[in-house]
Amino acid sequence: MYGVILLAAGALAACAAGKRIGGGTVGRPRVVLAGCVLGLILLLAASAALTLATAASAAEGAAAAADGASSGLGFLGASLATGLACLGAGIAVAVVGAAALGVVGEKPSMLGTTLIYLGLAEGIAIYGVIVSLLILGKL
Predict the structure, then answer these.
(1) So where are the chain's domains?
(2) Model confidence, pTM
(3) Is the pLDDT of residue 86 over 80?
(4) Of 15-24, 43-52, 78-87, where does mean pLDDT reach its minimum?
(5) From CA 134, how far away is CA 112, in angstroms rounded?
(6) Distance between CA 13 and CA 36 in Å, rounded?
(7) Which of 19, 51, 97, 123 has a C-alpha 20 to 30 A away from that of 74?
(8) C-alpha 61, offset from chain centre
(9) For residues 45 and 51, what is the distance between their CA atoms, to the nearest angstrom?
(10) Cβ proximity of 43 and 76 under 8 Å
C-alpha cells in the first residue's frame, strides 16, 4: 500500500515539474537535475522509513514476519539497483549523446564510434537490471 502511495506521489511530483517547465527552455539544467535527484532521494528515504517501520512492527510477529521483512528489503534492494542504474545510465547517455552529436556534426565518419559509446553508456542500465534479477532470484 505504501508503495502505491509513494509511486503516486512521485508521478504527481514529475507532472508538477513538467508543468512548471512548460515546454520552455531551461536556464539552469543542473539546478533542475539537482532538484530531481533531491526529490528521488526524499522519496527513497520515505520508502525506506516506511519499509523499516513496517519491518519493525512485523518483527513482533515471529519467524513468518521475519521472512516477510527480509523479502521486503530484498525487493527494496532490487528496485534500488534498477532505479539508480537507470538514473546513472540516463545521465551518461545525455552527456555522451550531446558530445556525439557535436562530433558527428564536424566529422560524419565518426558515427559508428559514437554509437558504440552510446551503447556502452546504456549498458549501465542493463547491469542494474541484471543485478536486480539476481537479487530477486535469491528471494
Answers:
(1) 1-61, 62-139
(2) 0.52
(3) yes
(4) 15-24
(5) 33
(6) 9
(7) 123
(8) 33
(9) 10
(10) no
Residue-level pLDDT at 7? 60
Q: What are phi and psi of 27, to 5 degrees?
A: -70, -40
- Does domain 62-139 fall under CATH 2.40.37.10? My reply is no
Tell me the residue type at 136: L
Contacts of 109 (CB under 8 A, 6+ apart): none
Q: Which residues of 101-112 are buried (b: 16+ CB within 10 A; e: fewer)?
A: eeebeeeeeeee
Strands (DSSP E) along 3-135, which ranges?
A: none
- Tell me: pLDDT of 63 over 60: no
3-state class of 23 per DSSP?
coil
The DSSP letter of residue 27 is S
Tell the residue number behind the cell numbers 560524419, with chain if given: 108
